[in-house]
């Protein structure tokens, strides 16, 4: 599909960075509870502090990346911070030390996603015929990493403990740092071009704000599922934790063809309509998870989950970039921060629900979140149509004058 070396390196970099997270994040909640002896509320506190610090720092960095800071340098620094984070977790066995490490290094590492995909969008707009498909392929690279990353991580954890999985993540992120430093272009867009279009202090429009709420509801549902399922399976159903690795891998395997086809689906049906279908698919997925404890049923249901995440993770970011074309770094990081906020929301909810009820009850909240996101998307589409009609009317009047 892509013949030039640089585009393939962007895709491979997305894959490698995805692999880092695939070895770390699925195990993190289990690590905090099992290895550090944290209660559900302590888990929520850890996630709250880690995510909130990441949101503030990455947003600060993103604003400056759209004006004068070098994206490649930011990407290297953020990935190096992530390396320090996962390397620390190899040896850290104190809860409060883990919180400190996550806040200090995790806050800076949060900028990596936004800067990588902002660089990718800038490169795609200038050198690739269809930048939407290119971004979708980069996002598919992340999904491919999640096909075998979580199963391998849980296998390593079962055989050698948490440290082995975190060590593999550290080695992988070291590879990512080397690839970015040596091969990724330094300045796809020059400082002069960025300064010319910089709108650093421009406020977010109401449609962008509404869309951010949609992202939070949709991904809060997904992240609550990701956070609660390891605990639900191991502590309540008391089944082999390898179930989770296989389920995550199955979902990621289903995401890949969806992500690769997302651009074409958006061209035919419209971006927002495809996202609506994806969120509805997610709602049906959570219904299946609520009504079944069979491994076969839960594994097959991952097809619905794969469509849900494949569409939302790919087109969700592209739609926000399209709304903020003059601030790609801010748009990409805003999307990333909404994902982080959704992690924050889901982390608080899993602690509250786990403390007051049980981890199974978290699936009800997942379903409600998906339904609310679908309703808000329909409202968004209606408002978007009205806005287009209004703009076309104003253009027509201006043309007559």
UniProtKB/TrEMBL annotation:
<keyword id="KW-1133">Transmembrane helix</keyword>
<comment type="similarity">
    <text>Belongs to the major facilitator superfamily. Set transporter family.</text>
</comment>
<feature type="transmembrane region" description="Helical">
    <location>
        <begin position="45"/>
        <end position="62"/>
    </location>
</feature>
<feature type="transmembrane region" description="Helical">
    <location>
        <begin position="359"/>
        <end position="380"/>
    </location>
</feature>
<dbReference type="GO" id="GO:0022857">
    <property type="term" value="F:transmembrane transporter activity"/>
</dbReference>
<feature type="transmembrane region" description="Helical">
    <location>
        <begin position="160"/>
        <end position="184"/>
    </location>
</feature>
<feature type="domain" description="Major facilitator superfamily (MFS) profile">
    <location>
        <begin position="6"/>
        <end position="386"/>
    </location>
</feature>
<keyword id="KW-0812">Transmembrane</keyword>
<dbReference type="InterPro" id="IPR036259">
    <property type="entry name" value="MFS_trans_sf"/>
</dbReference>
<keyword id="KW-1003">Cell membrane</keyword>
<feature type="transmembrane region" description="Helical">
    <location>
        <begin position="7"/>
        <end position="25"/>
    </location>
</feature>
<feature type="transmembrane region" description="Helical">
    <location>
        <begin position="98"/>
        <end position="119"/>
    </location>
</feature>
<feature type="transmembrane region" description="Helical">
    <location>
        <begin position="241"/>
        <end position="262"/>
    </location>
</feature>
<keyword id="KW-0813">Transport</keyword>
<feature type="transmembrane region" description="Helical">
    <location>
        <begin position="204"/>
        <end position="221"/>
    </location>
</feature>
<dbReference type="InterPro" id="IPR011701">
    <property type="entry name" value="MFS"/>
</dbReference>
<keyword id="KW-0762">Sugar transport</keyword>
<dbReference type="GO" id="GO:0005886">
    <property type="term" value="C:plasma membrane"/>
</dbReference>
<feature type="transmembrane region" description="Helical">
    <location>
        <begin position="131"/>
        <end position="148"/>
    </location>
</feature>
<feature type="transmembrane region" description="Helical">
    <location>
        <begin position="274"/>
        <end position="293"/>
    </location>
</feature>
<dbReference type="Pfam" id="PF07690">
    <property type="entry name" value="MFS_1"/>
</dbReference>
<feature type="transmembrane region" description="Helical">
    <location>
        <begin position="332"/>
        <end position="353"/>
    </location>
</feature>
<feature type="transmembrane region" description="Helical">
    <location>
        <begin position="74"/>
        <end position="92"/>
    </location>
</feature>
<protein>
    <submittedName>
        <fullName>MFS transporter</fullName>
    </submittedName>
</protein>
<dbReference type="InterPro" id="IPR020846">
    <property type="entry name" value="MFS_dom"/>
</dbReference>
<feature type="transmembrane region" description="Helical">
    <location>
        <begin position="299"/>
        <end position="320"/>
    </location>
</feature>
<keyword id="KW-0472">Membrane</keyword>
């Amino acid at each position: 599909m892509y013949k030039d070396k640089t585009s393939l390196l962007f895709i491979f970099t997305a894959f490698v960075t995805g692999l880092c997270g695939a070895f770390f994040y699925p195990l993190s909640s289990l690590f905090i509870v099992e290895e550090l002896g944290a209660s559900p509320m302590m888990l929520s506190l850890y996630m709250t502090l880690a995510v909130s610090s990441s949101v503030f720092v990455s947003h600060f960095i993103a604003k400056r990346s759209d004006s004068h800071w070098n994206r490649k340098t930011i990407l290297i620094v953020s990935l190096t911070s992530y390396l320090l984070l996962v390397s620390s977790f190899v040896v850290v066995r104190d809860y409060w030390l883990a919180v400190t490490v996550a806040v200090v290094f995790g806050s800076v590492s949060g900028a990596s996603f936004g800067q990588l995909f902002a660089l990718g969008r800038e490169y795609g707009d200038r050198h690739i015929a269809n930048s939407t498909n290119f971004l979708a392929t980069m996002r598919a690279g992340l999904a491919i990493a999640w096909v075998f990353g979580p199963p391998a991580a849980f296998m390593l954890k079962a055989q050698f403990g948490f440290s082995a999985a975190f060590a593999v993540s550290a080695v992988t992120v070291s590879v990512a740092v080397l690839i970015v430093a040596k091969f990724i272009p330094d300045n796809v867009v020059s400082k002069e071009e960025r300064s010319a279009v910089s709108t650093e202090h421009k406020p977010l429009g109401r449609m962008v704000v509404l869309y951010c709420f949609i992202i939070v509801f949709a991904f809060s549902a997904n992240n609550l599922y990701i956070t609660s399922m390891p605990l639900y399976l191991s502590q309540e159903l008391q089944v082999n934790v390898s179930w989770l690795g296989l389920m995550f891998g199955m979902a990621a395997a289903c995401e890949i063809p969806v992500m690769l086809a997302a651009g074409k689906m958006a061209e035919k049906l419209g971006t927002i309509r495809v996202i609506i279908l994806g969120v509805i698919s997610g709602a049906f997925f959570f219904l299946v998870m609520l009504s079944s404890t069979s491994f076969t049923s839960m594994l097959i249901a991952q097809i619905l989950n794969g469509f849900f995440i494949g569409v939302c993770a790919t087109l969700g970011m592209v739609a926000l970039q399209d709304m903020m074309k003059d601030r790609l770094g801010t748009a990409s990081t805003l999307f990333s921060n909404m994902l982080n906020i959704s992690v924050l929301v889901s982390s608080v909810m899993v602690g509250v629900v786990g403390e007051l009820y049980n981890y199974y009850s978290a699936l009800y909240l997942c379903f409600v979140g998906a339904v609310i996101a679908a309703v808000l998307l329909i409202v968004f589409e209606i408002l978007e149509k009205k806005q287009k009609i209004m703009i076309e009317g104003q253009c027509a009047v201006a043309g007559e004058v």
